[in-house]
Design goal:
The protein has about 280 residues and is of the alpha+beta class. Helix content is about 35%, strand content about 25%. It has nine helices and eleven strands. The chain binds glycine.
Length: about 280
C-alpha cells in the first residue's frame, strides 16, 4: 500500500506535474486505506468518534509560500483535499470542526455520515484500549520536489487513540507537523504536543541551511527525543530532491527515485533516530 501511494505521486511527477498534486495524491491513497490512522481507519477519541486533522504547504520559486490546514473533522473522506481547498479557496490558513465542514460544501467537497469514517479495526481498538492503543499514531505524510522547483508537504492523521474530543494534532499545524520553505519540505509523525512545541518541521527545514537532508532529519528527532522524551518521526526533502528521514518510533518510508523511475519501500522498523 505504501508503494501504491508513492506510485500515485510518482506518476504525477514523471509527467511533469506539480509537487502539490503529487503529495495530495499520495496522502489521499493512504487516507482511503483502513490500515492507516488517517481518513477512513482513523482511531477513535474518548467519545468514540473520529476527529481528523490535515495540512498542506507548498512553495513555488519566486512566490510566497502558501498553506492550509483543517482540524476536528468527522465527516470528510479526504481531509487532505479539504486542507488544499482551504489553502486555495479561502482567505484563511486553518479551519476546524463544523465551520471547516461547512466550508467543504462550498468548495464542492461532499460530507459523509460520521459513522462512515469508522473502520471495523478502529471500533475494535477502542475496546482493546490501554497503553498500546494510545501509543499508536499512524499519521501519514508525503513530501516532494518537482521539475519546476516547487516543493510541497502534506500530512493527515486521526490523532491519538482515546484523545479528548477537540484535541488539535500537530498534523494540522503549519511549522509543526507540516512545513515547506525555500530550503525544503517536511512532514512529521509522533507525539503531537511535543512536535507543536518544537515547531519540528520548520526547525528541520531551516536547518537545511547547514545540514544535509539526512542530518537534518536525524538532528530533529534526536532533539525532540532529548528535550521532550517524545516519540516522533520525520521525512524531508531538500530543493535538490535529496531525502532525509529519521524516527525513534515505528515508521515506514517509501520513496520515488526519478533518476531511475523506481519506487522503493524502505520500511525501517522501530529504533533510535534511524536514517537512510
Ligand atoms: N501526530 C499525531 C498526533 O499527535 O496525534
Amino acid at each position: 500500500m505504501m508503494l501504491a501511494a508513492v506510485r500515485a505521486g510518482a506518476a504525477i511527477l514523471k509527467n511533469g506535474g506539480r509537487a502539490l498534486d503529487a503529495v495530495i495524491a499520495t496522502v489521499s491513497v493512504l487516507e482511503n486505506h483502513p490500515l492507516f490512522n488517517a481518513g477512513y481507519g482513523s482511531v477513535l477519541n474518548s467519545a468514540g468518534q473520529v476527529e481528523m486533522d490535515a495540512s498542506v504547504m507548498e512553495v513555488n520559486p519566486g512566490a510566497p509560500p502558501r498553506a492550509g490546514g483543517v482540524a476536528a473533522l468527522s465527516r470528510i473522506r479526504n481531509p487532505i483535499k479539504l486542507a488544499r481547498a482551504v489553502m486555495e479557496h479561502s482567505p484563511h490558513l486553518l479551519l476546524v470542526g463544523a465551520g471547516a465542514e461547512r466550508f467543504a460544501r462550498s468548495a464542492g467537497i461532499s460530507l459523509c455520515r460520521p459513522e462512515m469514517m469508522i473502520s471495523p479495526r478502529a471500533r475494535e481498538r477502542r475496546w482493546i484500549g490501554g497503553a498500546k492503543a494510545k501509543r499508536g499514531y499512524g499519521t501519514v505524510g508525503a513530501v516532494a520536489v518537482d521539475a519546476h522547483g516547487s516543493m510541497a508537504a502534506a500530512t493527515s492523521t486521526g490523532g491519538m487513540s482515546g484523545k479528548l474530543p477537540g484535541r488539535v494534532e500537530d498534523s494540522a499545524i503549519i511549522g509543526a507537523g507540516t512545513f515547506a520553505g525555500p530550503l525544503g519540505a517536511a512532514s512529521a509523525t509522533g507525539h503531537g504536543e511535543a512536535i507543536i512545541l518544537a515547531g519540528l518541521c520548520r526547525e528541520a527545514v531551516d536547518s537545511l541551511v547547514k545540514l544535509s537532508a539526512p542530518q537534518a532529519a536525524r538532528n530533529a528527532i534526536a532533539g525532540i527525543s532529548q528535550t521532550a522524551g517524545a516519540e516522533a518521526g520525520i521525512i524531508l526533502v531538500d530543493r535538490r530532491g535529496r531525502i532525509g528521514y529519521a524516527h525513534n518510533a515505528a515508521m515506514e518510508v517509501a520513496t520515488f527515485d526519478p533518476a531511475h523511475g523506481l519506487c522503493h519501500l524502505r520500511s525501517p522498523a522501530t529504533g533510535p533516530a534511524r536514517q537512510p
